[in-house]
Amino acid sequence: MCNHDCCAMKTALQLRDLKKMLQKQLQQELENPPKKILTPPSLLYSYENIEMIANFIMSKTRTRPKFGIVCGSHLAMLTKVIEHPIVIDYADIPMFPKCTTHGHRGKLYVGTVRGATVIAMQGRFHYYEGTQLAACSMHVRVMKLCGVEYLFLSCSSSSVNANHKVGDVLLIKDHVNMFGLFGNSPLNGPHDERFGQRHLAMVNAYDRILLRKAQEIGHEIGNEKHMHTGVYACFGGPAYETVAEQLLLRKLGIDAVGMSQVHEVIVARHCGLRVFAFSLISVPSVENSKFADRSLAPGQQFAKELVVRLIHAIENGLIETPIGTDKLIHSQTGYAEDAFRAADATLIINRKPEV
């Protein structure tokens, strides 16, 4: 006599046939996986997308900021210098990436610092979060279309130079782009001339005039012992570097290593922004591991004062005019001699590695 399982096609014979059919389909899919065409990084955010995001921000703030600030890890308090801020959550901004790293709050601040208009990001995007480099740096182009001319970048980093301690601040004069050494760039993919030229010189990536002024401010504040100038390198993370990697970086003349910022500098220079960058040493070098618990507060306080004074100096014409960009762009025959001088390349070449 027929039962329910029989009518519902649940007999042992039917179940066996169904299992065979599913196994066959799975095998076919494994042998012939569906083709996936990845979107080139440069097409993740088109010019129209960036323009739409910038227009959204300006419609909420009614402001065209002149200065852009990116607050790195342990540096969220930089937004406290902004007067009368309008705060927008990243989640409320169309097409804006998500910020998942602890301590990066995912908020955009627009306001003033001593009368100068400012836009600041409290939290950035990292490659190790699964975000493409083009998306990790898209906010730089958004800031550019909002009106930004000067970009201040900050981050925390591990010390490579044994003379730099936790809580010190490194003013960045140059970088080593580990991503770029292996062909990974935020500019990869089809090019849009509206963002900038296809090939750009990076010999003056960090504005020498802004760097000199920052050094002067450090001396005025009396922070010479805890302020350094040096070279930064970017690793992918999220794991910190090994002892062997630290020793290798030291031989290359690198002073600190982190997991961000370099791709933002590339995009900033690509669209013509003047860049000043610094890093708060938050992890000691291999020799100084016993000082890992040293307070970051002195460096954080210095960073706040430095940003305020540098913005004030620029806004009130207290620094030199920019170097002519015509001497900093490479030609078919090579880089201009002035560009090499600006890069201060001999400092790295002649530097004796520490042991």
UniProtKB/TrEMBL annotation:
SUPFAM superfamilies: Purine and uridine phosphorylases (SSF53167). Its EC number is 2.4.2.1. InterPro entries: Nucleoside_phosphorylase_d, Nucleoside_phosphorylase_sf, Purine_phosphorylase. One of its GO terms (biological process) is nucleoside metabolic process. It is an enzyme of class 2 (transferase). Keywords: Glycosyltransferase, Transferase. One of its GO terms (molecular function) is purine-nucleoside phosphorylase activity. Residues 66-282 form the Nucleoside phosphorylase domain. It catalyses: 2'-deoxyguanosine + phosphate = 2-deoxy-alpha-D-ribose 1-phosphate + guanine; guanosine + phosphate = alpha-D-ribose 1-phosphate + guanine; inosine + phosphate = alpha-D-ribose 1-phosphate + hypoxanthine; 2'-deoxyinosine + phosphate = 2-deoxy-alpha-D-ribose 1-phosphate + hypoxanthine. GO terms for cellular component: cytoplasm. Gene3D superfamilies: Nucleoside phosphorylase domain. PANTHER family: METHYLTHIOADENOSINE/PURINE NUCLEOSIDE PHOSPHORYLASE, PURINE NUCLEOSIDE PHOSPHORYLASE-RELATED. Belongs to the PNP/MTAP phosphorylase family. This is purine-nucleoside phosphorylase.
